[in-house]
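Q: Sequence in, structure out?
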Amino acid sequence: MLPGGVNSPVRAFKSVNANPVFMEHGKGAYLTDIDGNKYIDYVLSWGPLILGHANEGVIKAVTDAAMKGTSFGTPTEIETELAKLVVERVPSVEMVRMVSSGTEATMSAIRLARGYTKRNKIVKFEGSYHGHGDSLLIKAGSGVATLGLPDSPGVTPGLAADTIAVPYNDLESVKFVFEKYGAEIAAVIVEPVAGNMGVVPPIEGFLEGLREVTTQYESLLIFDEVMTGFRVDFYSAQGLYVVTPDITCLGKVIGGGLPVGAYGGKKRNYGTNCPSRLYLSSRNPIGKPGSDECRLCNTKTINTTSL
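A: Exactly. Output:
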């Protein structure tokens, strides 16, 4: 019924020569499978559950919100409160748009960068995974790459031609690409700490160099902080490394396990995103009270807790 028996390649456990394990429930740092076996969950649902499974505060916030309704299709006070908290916590963000996943955040950020700069090409880094958007599945460090398979079928040559992949932590390669294509490059997208290739931190001067070269060529710098956001530092990776991007993508931790994402940046880049449909960013599920309450509770708890 399910391709490969799972809904995500990493859940198949093929890279470790094992069969999928079906879980029944989780609490704190532990998971229990359908056979009653208990596991320490070092991954915590691939990142979102920084407060652990079934955190009482998060569960209560979601339950209380669901009792009021699951979706309104209108603005809510809670999403404004959440946006304010993100703006306070992320140095680069003056305006933020909520979406339903980290993939949607990076896809929307790329579209926004292309619309703002009137350019098409994107620079990314080999082995870095930014979700399953077509233009970002070029030399991506996803679960597929773990198996040594080629890039995802279905990505068109046209999209591939507009995506330039260079080695991570290699600033000279970035400079070379800009010398050749600088007037065509809309943005550089980077994980400040590369996650899927093995948690590789930036070498000294790398992020600063990206900031300098993108500024020089009037391209945008996008930080994909879906993994690092609110995790590596109180103010995310950009706060830790003191480098300010133009656009920031968030997910995982801000959602506490529900399908969430966000992307934001400076007003000068972002003001055209709404209400104009020029750079359309609209999702039917956005503004669900339960998801927003979960985001807010998770982020507030991180804000007030020493983790």
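Strands lie at 23-27, 30-33, 38-40, 95-99, 121-125, 163-166, 185-190, 220-224, 247-250, 261-265.
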